[in-house]
Amino acid sequence: QVQLVESGGGSVQAGGSLRLSCQASGYSDSISDYCMAWFRQAPGKEREGVAIVYSGADTVFYTAPAQFRFTISRHNANKTLSLQMTGLRPEDTGMYYCAAERKSPYDCYADFLRHEHDFWGQGTQVTVSS
């Protein structure tokens, strides 16, 4: 069974940076066979996608709030996923979740847009103050 554990969250002031990490385990094959993504959810709001790296090639996609400020990276050797965040804003505050699924890039993209994935971590809190 795939297990995902996030870390790296915390409290920062606006304009600051954070690097989130997701440690994967329980994979019987390479994590490159999986799509891996970051989602987030603020209190009182729906879960939204942040960024995704697709299975196979390291092609990535970012939603509008993450473009130009966030960078998603998959590290196959140690089975980790990272999200480097810079220029943080108060509206970036929320619980950030690591997710994964073993599907084609096309199907992963469709699930990402629906705010769905097959495997989820417990989340790590990010708080950005003014």
Protein model, in words:
By secondary structure, the chain is mainly beta. Helix content is 7%, strand content 47%. Strand 7 and strand 8 (80-85) form a beta hairpin. The longest helix has 9 residues, at 105-113. The N and C termini lie far apart (40 Å). 33% of the residues are buried. The model has no long low-confidence stretch (mean pLDDT 94).
Concise summary:
The protein is mainly beta.
Unreliable residue runs: none
Give the DSSP E fraction (strand runs of 2 or more residues).
over 45%
Number of contiguous helices? 1
Structural class: mainly beta
Order of helices and strands: EEEEEEEEEHEE
Oligomerization status of the protein chains = single chain
Strands, total number = 11
Mean pLDDT across all amino acids: 94
Profile the largest sheet.
7 strands, mixed
N- and C-termini, Cα separation: 40 Å
- Form type: globular
How large is the radius of gyration? 14 Å
Q: Helical proportion?
A: under 10%
List the helices and strands and how they pair.
Elements: E1 3-7, E2 10-13, E3 18-25, E4 35-41, E5 48-53, E6 60-62, E7 70-75, E8 80-85, E9 94-101, H1 105-113, E10 119-120, E11 124-129
Parallel strand pairs: 2-11
Antiparallel strand pairs: 1-3, 3-8, 4-5, 4-9, 5-6, 7-8, 9-10, 9-11
